[in-house]
Amino acid sequence: MGVTLEIRDLHAGVEGDDSPILQGVDLIVRQGEIHALMGPNGSGKSTLANVLMGNPAYEVTAGEVLLDGEDVLDMEPDERSRAGLFLAFQYPVAIPGVTLGNFLRHAINARMKADDPESKGIPIPRFARMMRQKMSQLHIDHAFAGRYLNEGFSGGEKKRAEVLQMAVLEPRIAVLDETDSGLDIDALRIVADGVNSLTGPDMGALVITHYQRMLDYIKPDRVHVMFAGRIVQSGGPELALTLEEKGYEWIREEHAALARTESL
Question: What pLDDT digit, counting tens, does each position of 27-66 carry?
């Protein structure tokens, strides 16, 4: 059946702040599936992505996050990565002096060392062959690997670098936090093609986005709407089209009506 990411009644907020952001998130994503998570600004989408990967700026106060039945909330971020989770950042940071190729080789070596303390890492010729194969698959210029990570990259290049990292690290579940942010149509199409080429039986994806335009290129199996820290609507791809047509106001109205009913 493949690996399943299961989020159960997850509550979380900023470390040291008593105001919760996530207020009971429930979600299941399986290998081979693409799920889209949509919602207005401030609804908790990026917080969820950061909590899943263990960003220390956030504190989990209740709930579980299970990957293949194992609670990842007890793991450090690097352990979550080795377990099969991956996060493509909304705003990737630059690392001057570190080439993209060296960054990925050291990431692979760190994984191999964690599995086997005696490991000497991936041989450079083997790594170079793999990088060429992955970059050709994603239609990325091979010279890209020699550039410093995200330094001087355009918005589209940063997002392509994130997709290349995903291709090399081969996660079981990938979370893409507003990968379409700041992209023009051509760059969006290139990034979406890369995601589509990687998603399949061995990888599931949770695509966080504001806009239907992303889903014109990445076809989700399920669409979920987050509002006020919870997933309040789920459905098929047609739900995204409804949001494109009607916006989020009807979600706010339904949430307000539910809150009034619960208070009675």
Answer: 999 999 999 999 988 899 999 999 999 999 999 999 999 9
Work out the number of other CB atoms within 10 angstroms of the CB of residue 222: 18
Q: What is the pTM of this model?
A: 0.90
Q: How far apart are CA 85 and CA 175, in angstroms?
A: 8
Q: How confident is the model at residue 214 (pLDDT cuts 50, 70, 90)?
A: confident
| Rounded (5°) CA angle 9-10-16 | 140
Indicate the SS3 state at residue 47.
helix
For residue 93, how many C-alpha atoms fall within 13 Å in the half-sphere facing its CB? Answer: 3
Are 58 and 51 in contact, with CB atoms under 8 Å apart? Answer: yes
Using alpha carbons, select from 52, 56, 60, 112 the residue that is nearest to residue 87: 52
Order of strands across the sheet that contains 58-67? 22-30, 4-14, 58-67, 70-71
CB distance 176 to 91 below 8 Å: no
pLDDT digits (tens, 9 = 90+) for 57-102: 999 999 999 999 999 999 999 999 999 999 998 889 999 999 999 9
Residues 6+ apart with CB under 8 A from 39: 45, 210, 225, 226, 227, 248, 251
Whether 208 contacts 37, CB under 8 Å = yes
* Number of CB atoms found within 10 A of residue 250's CB: 12
Rounded Cα gap, residues 97 and 92, in angstroms: 16
pLDDT, the chain, mean: 90
